[in-house]
Amino acid sequence: MSPRTPSRPVGTVTRGTTNPNRLRRMDRWIAAVHGAALRRAADPVAVDLGYGAAPWTAVELLARLREAAPRARVVGIEIEPARVAAAKPYEREGLTFRHGGFELPLAQAPSLIRAANVLRQYDEDQVAGVWERLCGKLAPGGLLVEGTCDEIGRRHVWVALGPEGPRTVTFATRLGSLHTPSDLAERLPKALIHRNVPGEPVHAFLRDFDRAWAAAAPYASYGARQRWISTVRALTADWPVVDTPARWRQGEVTVAWGALAPVGGSRD
């Protein structure tokens, strides 16, 4: 007997705000760090969960993933039926759209689930349950990427999770638009955004990030990229940065989840 699925999608309708290229930073990171796993998968299926009022992010995800894994397929899943109907004309080989929510109405376990700007409207104490549910849907070696960005994708913060749970937090930005690294605080995912207060690790990290950025001011004459690279290199002395200068050059830094994980109870 097949597993019982909910009679209605699990979750809440989001605002649905979306713009072309909004998720480009997240997509490029996924292709870079998870592309090899997608290539190894027998049938690599990626889910764009809660893609919103227009299908652009799913269309773009397919194009970017196929640069790294030519056999990748994308399924856009939306809880609002009208959005699914509006997306259907954009279906093509490798891209389909389905009505659903966190239950993921799929016949097979996905190799990737991307949930961008989905959990922002939920309470903080709901996040762990959603993470656990989605991680339980992943194929072996699969990845869940959950995070938040601004309306045009200049600033983005996401958590990467495997079947076992959260692994890393990535901060990504258009360097030319950055005043200080703590500008990214407003885009922290729901699990962290209420934790940017004294006594919490993410607050200490952003404080140190700003201090390192200030100390690297002399590098600004060589451009924002060189200043960012110098800043992140300084951070490695005290924080478990897990990526390399190749990613720093893209305006990114990835830190082990355990270093930023909340220490107290819910703050919602």
Automatic annotation (TrEMBL):
Name the Gene Ontology molecular function terms of this record.
methyltransferase activity
The answer on whether this UniProt entry bears the keyword Transferase reads yes
Q: Which SUPFAM superfamilies match?
A: S-adenosyl-L-methionine-dependent methyltransferases
Question: Which Enzyme Commission number(s) are on file for it?
Answer: 2.1.-.-
Main enzyme class: transferase
Gene Ontology terms describing biological process = methylation
InterPro entries xref list = SAM-dependent_MTases_sf
Q: Which residues form a coiled coil?
A: none
Q: Which UniProt keywords apply?
A: Methyltransferase, Transferase
Name the UniProt record assigns to this protein: Class I SAM-dependent methyltransferase
